[in-house]
Amino acid sequence: MPFDKPHAVSPGLWALAWKRLRSDRVAMVSLAIVAVFLVMMVLSGTGLIAKDWAKEVGVNYAPPTFVGPAEPEAGATSAPAASVSEKATELPIEDPLADALAAIRNEGAAPPKAPTGATAEDSKTVDPLADVMADIRSKAVESVPAEARALTLPLGGDKWGRDVLKKVIKGSETSIFVGLAAAFVATLLGTVFGAVAGYYGKWIDDFFNWFYSVFTAIPYLLLILAVAAVLQQKGTFTIVLILGLTGWTGTFRLIRGEYLKHKGREYVQAADAIGASNVRRMFVHIFPNISHVVLVQLSIYTVAFIKSEVILSFLGFGVPVDVVSWGSMLNEAQNELILGKWWQLAAAGTFMAVLVTAFSLFTDALRDALDPKLK
């Protein structure tokens, strides 16, 4: 009777990496924070939360709840917000063309004699802007709610009375999506370019190295600002293209070096001996052995592109006016800070700092877990 020895299966790279990652408490806390932000982005994108972020629910520059309502100015009456808003809408709208129209009509002179058969209605001057001004007045009255607005909001309100908490949640949807999508585009381009250059070598490698040198010769921030100025089109998709098409250089350099190192190894030569094609050797045999490098680069790019989107939107090259992001909130908050209204700046900055810090810590832990040599 033969003696069967138990066959021990050694764990793979990803199983060992997950085991090392679970033993790092900082990495797991960071992963939980990142997961919360991703879930918040999905819920905001589906409209389950922060759907009515543009609704004016509070008074202008409503302070946070933990600060308390703003004190009335000296000499100001404590009338309810609703009545103040109603009185404000009753004020007449000044016509900047009134003086010019008065001069044209020559109101001080005697009116010309009406032609025979003309009525009094025909002799009146028709105002071409009457319908437009009436429409503006009606919309202004409709935009003011009849009930009193909130004097305080959880994280304060902006100059229109919109809830900053809902704005920062809706802004996370735009900023995180731009970071993830642009990181995917940049990592994909860098991986494909690096694989082709490192595997084939010769003049193909020389061409991609020249292309890489052209992109790295220009300062990165200046490059993305130049591309944004040339496109002259704002939008989330445009920002993804700008960041993705200009940020692939780091991944290209690392992937090219990995393919130069792996293409001469025995398992690649064995795949060549059994008749595997070049594409199969590149992406079926070599790529799984360097996929951890791609994953780490994807995490690093996500953090970098979230910050880049904030910078672009803050400078006015990012999302359009009707789209809210952390960068547009910071751009709007710079004027509010002069008036002492700091809560929108604090909310957007805090949310961004927490996500970027957690993502950076998780990326460092992931890189250590996927590289056993560091242990």
Q: Profile the largest sheet.
A: none
How many individual β-strands?
0
Element pattern in H and E: HHHHHHHHHHHHHH
Oligomer: single chain
Radius of gyration in whole Å, from Cα? 31 Å
Class computed from helices, strands and strand pairing: mainly alpha
How would you briefly describe this protein structure?
This protein starts with 12 loop residues before the first helix and ends in a 5-residue tail after the last helix. With 375 residues, the chain is mainly alpha-helical. 64% of the residues lie in helices and 0% in strands.
How is this structure best described in words?
This protein has 375 residues and is mostly helical. Helix content is 64%, strand content 0%. It has 14 helices and no strands. Helix 2 packs across helix 6, helix 6 runs parallel beside helix 10 and helix 10 runs antiparallel to helix 12. It starts with 12 loop residues before the first helix and ends in a 5-residue tail after the last helix.
List keywords for this structure.
single chain, 375 residues
Topology:
Elements: H1 13-22, H2 25-45, H3 81-90, H4 98-105, H5 130-143, H6 164-200, H7 202-217, H8 220-231, H9 236-246, H10 249-262, H11 266-273, H12 278-315, H13 326-338, H14 343-370
